[in-house]
From TrEMBL:
Recorded superkingdom: Bacteria
Keyword line: ATP-binding, Nucleotide-binding
A GO molecular-function annotation: ATP binding
Gene3D superfamilies with a match to the protein in the record: Histidine kinase-like ATPase, C-terminal domain (3.30.565.10)
Pfam family, one: HATPase_c_3
The protein's name in its UniProt record: ATP-binding protein
Length: 480
């Protein structure tokens, strides 16, 4: 009988031997291929997302504690007390937070698995979805990493040399320093510190480039604009990031479009769940870079450059399925869509969280609603443009007069009960007065022979030139 590894043919009538093919992954796949299409900024963004998720979990625990203990100090747990700090230079990368930390059990059984275990605790409304963000970020940056984490009663340190680990057949990391019964510490002392050294050459080069650090700061700032506005502090190389204002203009004449919906969807386990979506559209100040659609998934802005101004959000050109191509005529457009799900894997964005999944039926329906809601705003902005054309005097611009009387309202103050909202955007329909033309047309007929003789004398070639020159001659010699 042939052995499992034998190439011998089975005798006729006998059952062929079973040959098992090794399909297990290699560590090289995770160390190299898994990070190939991941940008350095997106990798760091994944680590920031982990800190934000930890903050969410800490606040979830706070809410549970409040129900049990009326003496809990809420100030220790509010967003205003939570911080994420990043240090990036050619020698090392460090990200540190005070957002609650990670338990030894979580680190041992779930956090370092290559893929999310179905048994792992889920953070409602989290940003992580596949369980690979932290690992591929670590491999993307360098060859040595250290993780120190502290919860209220748990503490551990994990040190990994990636090159040494890659040579071992065992996939497990070794945690040599941990304590599952540590003395309790206050909320502000609970957090995680990740430091990466022996950086990859390309990474070290980027971290030595001030322009890269500036762009990194802007991207993190944009992605976390909503959380920063709620009070979360994020700093890069000692500089605290600020949030661009999320605002909309309103007045008795201008009503923002507002719509909420819950979309049923089936998760991977076959369970019916709902994804909630909230849309707000209107107008803002005329700033080209600030116009467009702000798309949030679980409060995280999807496009790290700011608002989306591409076909992804409906700016396709009128010959396609959306609205016009975005340009300065629409710089006042403001659209906000918040897509929320308890299960982050149901959010319709791509794996790097920097754009939407255009093949997602969920997002196709959301995008169709976005396009529907943007049309009244586009019509108003088209009318606003007409008022500026053909040297129309400022006193004949009623829509400009109305929009000048609006006031800025923070987006966070708008909800379904707000007085300044309606099912769709509403704006004044007042039109500018028709201008009286200051010029008139003179028309007369003459024989071609006589006109040709006048053309020759005036040295011109066209009939309008003949009319203009003859009128000027008469006006200069007989009127003035």
């Amino acid at each position: 009988m042939p052995t499992e590894d034998s190439d011998a043919m089975p005798v006729q009538g006998e059952q062929a031997p079973i040959i098992r093919i090794d399909a297990s992954p290699t560590k090289e796949l995770f160390i190299t291929m898994l990070v190939r299409d991941l940008s350095l900024r997106d990798a760091i963004g994944d680590l920031v997302d982990n800190s934000v998720d930890a903050a969410r979990m800490l606040l979830e625990k706070r809410d549970a504690t409040v129900k049990e203990d009326a003496e809990v100090l809420l100030s220790e747990f509010d967003y205003e007390a939570l911080k994420v700090t990043i240090t990036a230079n050619p020698q090392e990368f460090i990200i540190e937070d005070n957002c609650g930390g990670m338990t030894v059990e979580t680190a041992r059984n779930y956090a370092f698995r290559f893929g999310r275990s179905s048994k792992a605790d889920k953070t409602p409304g989290s940003l992580g979805q596949f369980g690979i963000g932290m690992k591929r970020a670590l491999f993307k940056l360098g060859n040595n990493f250290s993780i120190v984490s502290r919860t209220r009663t748990n503490a551990f340190t994990l040190n990994v040399d990636v090159n040494e680990w890659a040579e071992q057949t065992d996939w497990k990391f070794t945690m040599s320093d941990y304590d599952e019964d540590a003395p309790p510490v206050a909320a502000g002392e609970q957090g995680t510190r990740i430091s990466i050294t022996n950086l990859l050459p390309d990474v070290a080069g980027q971290f030595g480039n001030p322009k890269f650090i500036t762009n990194l700061s802007v991207e993190i700032e944009n992605e976390n604009v909503y959380n920063i506005q709620k009070g979360l502090t994020i700093g890069v190389n000692g500089q605290r990031l600020s949030a661009r204002p999320l605002e909309i203009l309103t007045s008795p004449d201008f009503t923002s479009g507002y719509f909420e919906q819950s979309i049923p969807i089936m998760d991977k386990m076959g369970k019916d769940v709902e994804v909630s979506v909230r849309y707000i559209v209107g107008v803002g100040d005329p700033v080209l870079a600030d116009g467009g659609w702000y798309i949030f998934c679980n409060d995280r802005l999807v496009t790290g450059t700011g608002p989306d101004q591409s076909p992804v959000s409906g700016w396709t050109g009128r010959q396609s399925d959306g609205g016009p191509i975005y340009h300065d005529q629409y710089e006042r457009f403001r659209g906000y869509v918040f897509i929320s799900s308890v299960d982050a894997s149901l959010l319709p964005w791509n794996t790097t969280k920097n754009s939407m999944d255009m093949d997602s039926k969920l997002y196709q329906g959301i995008r169709a609603k976005m396009i529907e809601m943007m049309r009244p705003v586009i019509s108003f902005l088209n009318n606003l443009k007409k008022e500026r054309e053909a040297d129309n005097p400022e006193e004949n611009r009623p829509l400009h007069d109305r929009i000048a009387k609006t006031k800025v309202v923070a987006l966070s103050t708008i909800n379904k009960d707000s007085p300044q909202i309606a099912a769709q955007f509403e704006a004044p329909k007042e039109q500018m007065a028709k201008q009286k033309k200051s010029q008139q047309v003179i028309r007369y007929e003459e024989s071609k022979t006589r006109i040709d003789r006048v053309k020759k004398v005036l040295n011109v070639n066209t009939l309008p030139e003949v009319g203009q020159r003859t009128f000027e001659y008469f006006y200069e010699n007989e009127v003035q």
